[in-house]
Amino acid sequence: MFTLNSQVKLADTDAAGILFYANYFRLAHDGYESFLEAIDYSLNYVINESDILILIVHTEADYKQSLRLGVNYTLQIKVDKIGKTSFALNYRFEDSNSQIVAVIKTIHVTVSKGKNKPVKLPEKLRDKLTQYT
Amino acid sequence: MFTLNSQVKLADTDAAGILFYANYFRLAHDGYESFLEAIDYSLNYVINESDILILIVHTEADYKQSLRLGVNYTLQIKVDKIGKTSFALNYRFEDSNSQIVAVIKTIHVTVSKGKNKPVKLPEKLRDKLTQYT
Amino acid sequence: MFTLNSQVKLADTDAAGILFYANYFRLAHDGYESFLEAIDYSLNYVINESDILILIVHTEADYKQSLRLGVNYTLQIKVDKIGKTSFALNYRFEDSNSQIVAVIKTIHVTVSKGKNKPVKLPEKLRDKLTQYT
Amino acid sequence: MFTLNSQVKLADTDAAGILFYANYFRLAHDGYESFLEAIDYSLNYVINESDILILIVHTEADYKQSLRLGVNYTLQIKVDKIGKTSFALNYRFEDSNSQIVAVIKTIHVTVSKGKNKPVKLPEKLRDKLTQYT
After folding, report:
1. Distance from C-alpha of A38 to C-alpha of A33, rounded to nearest angstrom
2. Chain C residues inside the 8 Å CB shell of B71
């Protein structure tokens, strides 16, 4: 499991006083990028140097509580599934009392650059992901 | 069906050159607010004047294509389901060739302000939603 | 003068209940893109087809009032100055009572792609901008 | 001086491949909130508990370089000026080679809640700010 600690900023919130529902996806992706970097497979490398792209084809979120301005929270990322040409991630937002606030899932497909066709997960990426299942 | 025409702005895009996955949720919500206003049940009224809140408890998205900077697209919103204390919306993003780019679903629960307990959909809201099923 | 009518969306606001200060710049840029398209010089064309880039080198904002969720506002854009290799735009946000809410300025420099050196404003762009001074 | 280390995330960038000009203001404000917390005067306290609000009445940015996806940068915040009812902050974004990327200024006015009239900076806030001039 990959864990990040963060805090709700004003830009994350909306006029209802809570973290705006769409911003969970932005924050999850920020975490995803930190995760990719931690497994030495940075998004920058993927986009600018590798011969694949990792596309998000599906995502979903369940909102159980809300987060208010200034509140500390934890984002835990783990690998849910690893397929031939895809993988699924699970993101759990917890408040400072370890209460689940929201859970996000993302499904990622690796495609060849240019042709945009699904290709097998690169060996190295698969190995690294396996460590976080 | 409620339809909006729009265009991909630079702020919507990311370094991959396409509309960032989380921004579909922001744009869907923008559309949802226009829809609520069209049925005379504005979010501003809900948050500041009514005795209920309409919470998003679940959302999901399927991404089928991508949208690039400057591209025109259509957002179509319709009501998927109406329950006792909840309703579900469907948002379809189509490019200018009527190709589906992305589909989003949101599930909304009406709760009493303060207590945060599910309450029956207000009659008027239910009636209006019914017109868009 | 180039004018757009819009409405404050939930995603624009923050926990203080008002349009978040940084979002004025996003909305101004959305307007700038519509303006560029109106003068047949779309940002998409600039980024992907022309041999120049138009860089923002300076921006500033004065906030005089605030805008709340659901409020209608007008964004008026005009050209402040046209230089040899640069131009300045002025954006005025007005509420529905024609009260000035915020004023933004942006200074844009045209540079050659690759070398990133200032180059003369393309004739056509200069001509079009002149119509909005 | 208050210093934060960060990294450019995909959500910060745009189709030009660089950190979107408006997002510097979001990131500066994120830093401002961390700064306020560091001086024990959190924005959450200000908005929800104190009898003042701290309004941003002016901001400006100079962009000297750009920041690309995945790049590490430093944000340095210092207090530029302290007035009777206002203060000014300076934010300097530097890349990993200590090159200045962008400089932002914000001017903040303390007003009474409700009446929205300028009031003297609270003693404690003034004292803390003084330590960062």
Report:
1. 9
2. 44
